[in-house]
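Troubleshooting: if your tokenizer reports a length mismatch, compare your output against this known-good record of 201 residues.
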Amino acid sequence: MLKKYFTPLINIQNCINKNMPSLISKIETILFVAGKPLAAKKISKALNENEEKISECLTALLEKYNASEDAGVVIMRNNGEWQMVSNPENREAAENFLKAEISGELTRPQLETLTVISYCGPITKPELEQVRGVNCGLILRNLMIRGLIKENNDASGLLPTYEASMDYLRHLGISDLRELPDYAELHKHEYIEIAKEEKQI
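Known-good structure output:
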């Protein structure tokens, strides 16, 4: 069933021979942080690179990740868009893990992430991770499933931004995030602004 997702390795070496390992690495990072399907055109615009070259590197990445049916992460291509996703064969394991993650009280990392989003949102995943210093992908998904944050597409259409949801405000008993303690000071805190600027793509 999964064989349709996998292709033999044929283009990775070609890209390496063309001195494009750095470009492949950048594209790989963008697919990882985006968490949604992306067209080669959007990636080429973000990296200021030729779209044909981007497509060639995307194909190389697809072959790299999909070379083995045992891979936990694969790259899918559909209607001109590309996305890094978990192996569809591992769906049950992933669902069981996520169910366990969203039960019970929020963990300290989840609370910290929610706090940063509350005071700094709208904020992208790379900006959030620059502030916290750790990967926040699973935590963001957890908070969205709980209905505490929402995901919005930004103007560039490349990276989504995250902000507190209306349900979250209701849980806190406030009508506006500006009612949070020291919101005005922390929302534009110097460290936060520097951290966000350093992570711009």
